[in-house]
Backbone:
């Protein structure tokens, strides 16, 4: 079955960087892209960006461009999301999810368990 | 940037029908999907491509999308359906976007 297993929680100081990993299993890795979604405490879901597991192409929400880098390692079926210059309002649960398509409409059926990133001095 | 608007909360009595709306400019020209999220859990896809139910999602969940509004309908709502629900659409200039979420209370 499809599984996405994320790395554990992190505590970082403001200005630092964090990398969250998402290891996929149960399907052919390069056939589906991976997207990142975050959720601040008590808030809604926020789409951050996605990466093609096939060729590494990425697209991201404008507010994250320049501060977030997504990469993929096809040898380990793992996707990484690095966020730099962390601020307190980056404190959130970060989710990875597999991108599926049906007649050109994309959706996220399989999700990781989430990784809590806490930014605090 | 493209925006999707949902009511913050919807209340329904057990066994009744709950309707959760999602509004956006010409949303009917795009495809909408819906996620259910319970406290402390990852989101679960309950509807995609406007009205398609993933396997394992009960038949009481249905969806529609026309004009500027997509709607998730839960018929015969059960206490286990109490959760936050998020709509999502894909838009060419901003890729995926989520609505702000609706808290469904079953009382």
Residues:
């Amino acid at each position: 079955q499809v599984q996405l297993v994320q790395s554990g929680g992190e505590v970082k100081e403001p200005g630092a960087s964090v990398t969250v990993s998402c290891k996929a299993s149960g399907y052919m890795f390069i056939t589906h892209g991976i997207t990142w979604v975050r959720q601040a405490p008590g808030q809604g879901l926020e789409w951050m960006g996605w990466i093609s597991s096939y060729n590494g192409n990425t697209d991201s929400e404008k507010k994250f461009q320049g501060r977030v880098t997504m990469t993929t390692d096809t040898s380990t079926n793992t996707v990484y999301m690095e966020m730099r210059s962390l601020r307190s309002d980056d404190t959130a649960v970060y989710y990875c999810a597999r991108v599926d398509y049906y007649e050109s409409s994309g959706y996220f059926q399989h999700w990781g368990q989430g990784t809590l990133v806490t930014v605090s001095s | 940037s493209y925006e999707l608007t949902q009511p913050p909360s919807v209340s329904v009595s057990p066994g009744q029908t709950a309707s959760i709306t999602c509004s956006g400019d010409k949303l009917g020209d795009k495809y909408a999907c819906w996620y259910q999220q319970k406290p402390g859990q990852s989101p679960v896809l309950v509807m995609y491509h406007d009205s398609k139910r993933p396997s394992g999602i009960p038949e009481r969940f249905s969806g529609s999308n026309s004009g500027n509004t997509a709607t998730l309908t839960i018929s015969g709502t059960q206490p286990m359906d109490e959760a936050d629900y998020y709509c999502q659409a894909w838009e060419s200039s901003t890729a995926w976007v989520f609505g702000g979420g609706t808290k469904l209370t079953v009382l």
